[in-house]
């Protein structure tokens, strides 16, 4: 009975979040959308304070203020104004590149856990990790909106990540046996990874077809690159999920927050997105 109630709560919350996000993404202009994303990222940074180990309000506000100041500076650095119709793509690429490098390092951290915990388990280092995950994601999601102002590319990114999560969940739950990372997330299996990969590729193929027919014509090269990108989304989604699991386990946390009934915190819902966004958006900038 309790499980049914929790599942119902999760479904209702997920539907509300999806409808709100679709409406905001499609209806808002690019600059207004950037304000919405900024608010969401600042809420996520508040949750990241739990990973750092900050418990006092003053400390949390200081971290949030640091991120807010950096984002404000990025508005000028990237040329985001109410009148602009594009961001400085070269500068965007630099920030996204830093994000990609961080996630490559994160993979090494995950492979060496828990033996390597002493190398990164420090408040200042985990605080820096938050900046290196949240800022590239903020930059990338807003850049997608500027590339395609109707918001379809943004929605495509979220749909791909959702497909990876759903495919991994149902395949893993149905036939999963071989554990992926028992020290980090005991329920994750290799079968689930392959399920997410398959679901992501199918959805990715549909999205690439949609882009080619309704947004802008793709060359064969772009077609192939975007199909391969859909496969990388599934793998990076797993890495983002595992990193959050590692940080929660490190602090003895069950969820990153409580803002989303039945789901936990914002970071619990976007952990995969954090890892996927830098390479996803950088790829679009390269093949444009």
Number of helices: 10
Average pLDDT reading: 92
Biggest β-sheet: count, sense, barrel? Answer: 2 strands, antiparallel
Strand % is under 5%
Shape: globular
Write the element-wise H/E pattern from the N-terminal end onward: HHHHHHHEEHHH
Query: Portion of residues in helices?
Result: over 70%
According to DSSP, the number of beta strands is: 2
Poorly predicted regions are none
**Oligomeric state of the chains?**
single chain
Structural class: mainly alpha
**Global Rg:** 19 Å
Within the largest sheet, what's the order of strands? Answer: 1-2
Rounded to the nearest angstrom, the distance between the terminal CA atoms is 51 Å
Q: Domains counted in the coordinates: how many?
A: 1
Annotate the secondary structure layout.
Blueprint: H1 2-27, H2 30-52, H3 57-77, H4 89-111, H5 117-120, H6 123-147, H7 152-175, E1 179-181, E2 185-189, H8 190-215, H9 220-251, H10 266-287
Antiparallel strand pairs: 1-2
Offer a concise description of the structure:
The protein is mainly alpha-helical and 288 residues long.
Describe the model.
- By secondary structure, this protein is mainly α.
- It is built from ten helices and two strands; from the N terminus they run αααααααββααα.
- The chain has a two-stranded antiparallel sheet.
